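Work package 3, deliverable 3.1, input record:
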Amino acid sequence: MAPPATDAATTKQEQQHAAGGEGVEVGGDLRLVAECGTVVRLSRSAARMSTTLFDMIEAGCAEGGIPIKGADVGTLRLVAAYCEKHAPHYDPVASAARLRDPFPPFPIEFTPASYAVKPVTQLDPDPHGLEAWDRKFISDLPDNSALFNLIIVANLMAIEDLVDLGCTAVADKMRGKTPDEIRVALDIENDYTPEQEAEVRRENAWAFED
Amino acid sequence: MSKGARNTRQFLAASSSGAGGSGSSSASYGSGGIGAAARTNDVNTGILDENVLALVFRSLDFDPKMLCTVCCVSRRLRAVAERVLWRELCVSRAPRMVASLTATGAGAGGAPPAPGRVVGGWPALAKLLLFCCGAAAAAVRGHFTGVSRFSKTSGRSFLSRRCRGDLLYVSDPCEHAVPGADDDVGAYRGVFRGFTRSRTRACLVGRQAPLETRVRCPYCGARVWRMVAAGMAPRSAWRRLGAYEGRLEYYVCVSGHLHGNCWLARLTSSDGDSEDDDDDDASTEGGSDGGLVAP
């Protein structure tokens, strides 16, 4: 059930699991317990990306297994892989500064990175290769349901960046498509009768007039 | 059109029960092609989960075109959109206006979590915020608008003296040139707060004002009263809009949506003829108005 993209990560985790033993808890890795009981290990620095886990670490209740309700092993492994990859370059201030609930809701052209000081010359826009890795991460997901589970679990664990990534991926699948294309792309069954469908289309045609 | 209104109400009733569809249709979800793996728990998983949908649409900024498209995809999505997504669109476009429309000041019935329900439904309110319905009489087609401004002060001018206690938001008139006429037609729309408990409705019912047979609310499909015929269109209304005397027409539907049009007078130098009823014209009320609504 483990997707091929995370083989490297799972191998690493298995090594940690084998070598680390059971007693290493203080200052060691966190143990996330999936719905079926399997443990997925996550290093403390990677766990900082999840606001929930971060708060738990600060409060000192991150010892022992942390059950993640509603998460299956595959999704947890993916989340762990994402966190491990992004942890060295994670900037909580920048992440929080990215406006997720913008008002006004249409984009206004700001100067780039208005929250940080930038050099005059534009350096490499993807210095750590993170964006390319993210794209590969998303495209390597086996199917839509894996993507949706990823969003749900990332939301549960309050990993804003991963939620953004997942939602942007789904939004890209939906943007600019007709209802039929969306049904195909997201594998949704059409449960309207033809009359109802015609009615609904007429009702919702107003957003497209002029 | 009446059949359409009944269907709308059926959908509304179904979604408000929280089941997301009538009893017979929910059985079909389990066998539908939702995911490859068998799901033992809730069938509304993945993209049909309303939390996921809310998050995805948040990253789309609740684009109304996307919302309309997604409503046509499946019944479940339409139900979620009606309950959550259209509401979030309204809140993101006009937070203060929505907050004051859903505030239960009179404490009628149970207090819903803010904002829970709105009379007429969230899709109708979203359409009202973003769609100018034009003027059927002058053959002006409706269109999707850009920024609209809704104002309580304008709304006050549409209330007769007895009904000044009601809260009504009215938009600025959207000007349309009519071929073959010198003047422009202004189309405007508005919404009452808590129309079912308002004095305006009480007056209309008390006068036994008849409901129109040929006109329907363009936002929720409900039946409307013609306010000029009912004798409830005050002079301040056409003065506020800058229209020709008495040449305006507007309708209020049973859910409290207002839509109307008027012939706009050419602007002359004699502006600012405000009398006692137009004293606080956007100066003090400006801060607490509905404000700008963007697409």
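Chain B touches chain A through 56 residues (CB under 8 Å).
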